[in-house]
Amino acid sequence: MNIVTVKINGIEYNLKGDEQEEYLHKVASYVDKKVKNIMDNNAKLSTSSAAILSAVNVVDDMLKRQKEYEELVNKVNQMEKAQKSYMEQIDSLKKQLKHMEEYNDELQLKLKSNSNNQHLEQKKQDIEKLTKELELTQETAQKYIKENAELKAENKEYKFQVQSAKYKMIDLQHRLVENQINLAKEKKQKHPFLNDSTK
Known about the structure:
rod-shaped, Cell division protein ZapA, coiled coil, 3 helices, mainly alpha, single chain, cell division, 2 strands
């Protein structure tokens, strides 16, 4: 466990944590700026009042980040569902395409072996119709494949945003804990008979 001496609003505190010293200094610097900013805006505030307002601001930030995180998770889930649906549609179109190609091959064979001109003409029309259907099916399949690729890219970006939001939320939780430690320190200074459990 690391123990780091930091200054918050001109007062030294000993912070304990499993995190790296650099991180603990970063947390202390963040809290120091919050408290100084609040006290600069209202010089009549006591240090403990400023610490409480800082804690309120940090919690507000954390809850907003948590809401953003939950919204991103919901978007990712929706994108994954849409991606799954597109994949199923693509598979279905591939099966239809294969079936039509087989049927087309069958008609081509029948055309070659059939000497009836009228029957041949009808089969030609059937082939033309099937060819158009095949082209439409291929276009639709390509469209779904393209949309699926776009969904994958968006899904990857949302996952990255979710991970970033998660780290931000963890960082805010650490800041909240440090604020609570600072508040306890302030109380100890006002009431020296209380035990200081953070040193």
